[in-house]
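ok so i was messing around last nite and threw this chain in just to see what happens. nothing serious, just curious
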Amino acid sequence: MFQIITDSTTDMPEAYTREHNVKVVNLKYTIDGVTYGGERSMSLDDFYALVRTGTIPSTSQVNPEEAFEAIEAAIPDGREILVLAFSSGMSGTYNSFRLAAEDIKEKYPDVDIQVVDSLAASMGHGLLLHYAIGMRDAGKSLHETKDWLEANKNNLVHMFTVDDLNHLYRGGRLSKTSALIGTIVGVKPILHVDLEGKLAPLRNVRGRKKSLVALVDDMERRMGSFADQNDTVFISHGDCPEDAQFVADEVERRFGKKNILINCLGPVIGGHAGPGTVALFFMGDTK
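result:
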């Protein structure tokens, strides 16, 4: 059975990764000159309270040295390792793991390391991890699992909306004028992650509740041939659990999906998307 390594941008519950023996490498974030994500941590309640005051965290990718240490530490647990990394369209973390894997193979020639660029973020990345764990635990080989991930990762749909356009502006995803006008008229954007693993806008709706319903509307349009295969749906949120539950209830009511995992966005993704973000993840014909 192969070992799985991923990074903290899956936004998966710690209990889940621990239960399934997944090693997680933390991306770090810095607030007011203090770096968190390694030995120092901050509660999500405190983090979102700071972000709501206008504090802007900076984030850093997993570097090659950290990636090397994580892979090397996993070798005693197995000579076959799958690394599932944060989208290369948003971070250099995948490239760090790729470079580290090459160095590990030189030092340990008998170790088989397969590194997959998830082209995904948050619990979209987490949903791919969930499928990889399922395949591993069902007895699929390292290479069978990697091949499935490569073949299906662009069927992993990310649909999300944000409540405060200023976070997208500060992250360079929206102009200052668009953020100002959108805020005044109550525009809420619907965005997704595209085939290059980058954030991309889809359309705008007016009003918070309409934006949440729009996520579920888009799920109906995008599932296609995967409609009967979506036995698991993930939802992440920026410290707005009631809104996430509203989306979950709509998904269950409209599509009969009951296996829905909801979790809060971690600081790395949440710091860019902001409080009030709600994201819906599932498999579909169109990413």
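not much to say yet. The first strand starts at residue 3 and ends at 7.
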